Structures are given as C-alpha cells and as structure tokens.
From TrEMBL:
Name used for this protein in its record: Signal peptidase I
Organism ancestry: Bacteria, Bacillati, Actinomycetota, Actinomycetes, Micrococcales
Any single biological process term in GO: signal peptide processing
Keyword Protein transport: no
TM annotation in the entry: 32-53
Location relative to the cell: Endoplasmic reticulum membrane
Membrane topology: Single-pass type II membrane protein
GO cellular component, one term: membrane
Top-level enzyme category: hydrolase
Keyword Thylakoid: no
Amino acid sequence: MTRARRQTPTVERRRVENRRRTRRPREGARPWWLRGVTAVLWTVVVVCGLAYATSLAVPLWFQVHQQRLLVVTSGSMAPTFKAGDAVVLRRITDPSQLKVGQVVSFWPVGSQSLVTHRVVELHMLPQLEADRVDPTRSVPVLDDAGEQVENPYIVTKGDANPERDPNATPLTRVRGVVLAVHQGWGWVLQWAGSARGRAVMLVPPLLSLATLEIMAVVGARRRRPPADSRPADDGRAFDDLLLD
C-alpha cells in the first residue's frame, strides 16, 4: 500500500508531460499579415477579372443588338462629340433611312479611313464608269432602256469644319447612322483592346492566383504533423501498466 502511494506522483507527472507533448497548435490560425496579403491578392483577381469581362461584354452587347461602337479620333465634329468619345452606329440598307441633319460614318471615295460627319445634302447622281475608248474619262452608266443609272449620294460636313467635304459619297460607302454618343468611352475601349491594356488586366490576376496557390501549398506543409510523431495513446498505455 505504501509503495503504490509513492509511485502515484510519478505517474501523474508523466501524464501531464505526455499531454504537453501531444498538444498541437490551433488549426486555421494565421497571422494577420498573411490574411491581409490574401485579401489583397483576391481583390486584384476580382477587379481585373471584372474589368476584362466588361471590356469583352460591352462591344458584344451592341453587336447582339445589330449596332457597332466606333471610337472618335478627331475633333471635326466638336462640340457634338470629341476625340476620345465613342459613338453607336446602326447599319442602313435603304436610302429612305437617310435624312439631312443625321450624323453618319462613311468611307470617303478613294480612302479606307472612316469619317463621321453630318449629312447636309442628299442627291441622286448618275453612276459613272471608265470610258472604254479613253479610260481617263468617266461616262454615265446606261440601263437597258438607255436611261442613266442614278445612285443616292450624300454631301457631308464636320460641325467644326468651315467647309463641306470635297466629294459626295455614295450610299454604298456609308457604314451607319450615329444613334448615341458616350463621352470618354473611346479612350477606355481603345486602351482595353490594346496589348498593354490586355496585359494589365490579365497578368496581375494570373500572378495573384499563382501566389495564392503557393501560399496554400506552403501552409498545408507547415500544418502537416511530423512523420515520427507518436499518438498519445502510447503514453496512456504506459501509465496504465505502471498503475497495475
């Protein structure tokens, strides 16, 4: 009886030591700075992802509604719209859709650059072709009845220009009629469609996702218990043997 009483403190001390050795740190607890870095990285992913999605969705929305966005690059139509604005175009298929006072986008004769000016006159002019005898001369095109073939033409002028455009433009070279103006959209759309804009919207979120993945892998390895750790049941079994 006396011997069992003397061994009791030793057994209790061993139990306390085993509990201390088997106590693990609280799972899921991370330093405040690590939580802050994670929040910043996810913010970059969300913001850049939304910006890139918007740059694709806005032009697509107008295309679905049979419209087009055109970036204004000059100030010939000021103050109606200026360089850096964006105009919404609707395609026309019939001369009756054109009226004096409308703003249209067209390719001038002999040019492949779009111009957006106001219609000041509408005319029906004879269609011309090169003379077969003298190619340097232009002659009217005749139909089967011998009548001149006439096509609709527009005469245009920029609101900020003192004079009209030098040449009349056939209807076939008109791209569309301006329906609306969005101030400042042009520079944003132009930047978003450039290589630099795409890099700014795509590279940071990709790097952020890679950093988050690395942080997750490193954190999982730190929380993993050592391979040589032993369960606490061995200590309890040894204590039970001593009590017996």
